[in-house]
Specification:
Helix content: under 10%
Number of helices: 0
Structural class: mainly beta
Radius of gyration: 13 Å
Oligomer: single chain
Length: 121
């Protein structure tokens, strides 16, 4: 059974916005968004660790916002002021344990299949 399913990717011009969604079937202690672009390693962009304050990568801080709608079992990533370097496959991730490194991919047990974001003029 699919545990995580991303949606909301697409093609936008620089400065545009997109809102990604990740529907999940079960409750998780930690959830996050990662991205992977050609020639680059997977990068943690935003995460929520338990009841802690959300954590963001410096590259997206001030532009991206992560939020969780537990009632509807959906994790969101609002992306504003998009730049060409934001182009990547975006993945939703979930973990069952607390982690002091919420943007480290090693702390996650489950992954979605990804949704593609392309930012170009």
């Amino acid at each position: 059974q699919v545990r995580l399913m991303e949606s909301g990717g697409g093609s936008v011009q620089p400065g545009g916005s997109l809102k990604l969604a990740c529907e999940y079937r079960y409750s998780y202690y930690v959830m996050a968004w990662f991205r992977e672009a050609p020639g680059k390693e997977r990068e943690g962009v935003a995460g929520i660790n338990g009841d802690s304050r959300p954590v963001y990568s410096d590259s997206v801080k001030g532009r991206f916002t992560i939020s969780n709608d537990d009632a509807n079992r959906t994790l969101y990533l609002q992306m504003n002021a998009l730049k060409p370097e934001d182009s990547a496959m975006y993945y939703c991730a979930a973990g069952i344990h607390w982690s002091d490194r919420p943007l480290d991919s090693k702390g996650y047990n489950f992954w979605g299949q990804g949704t593609l974001v392309t930012v170009s003029s």
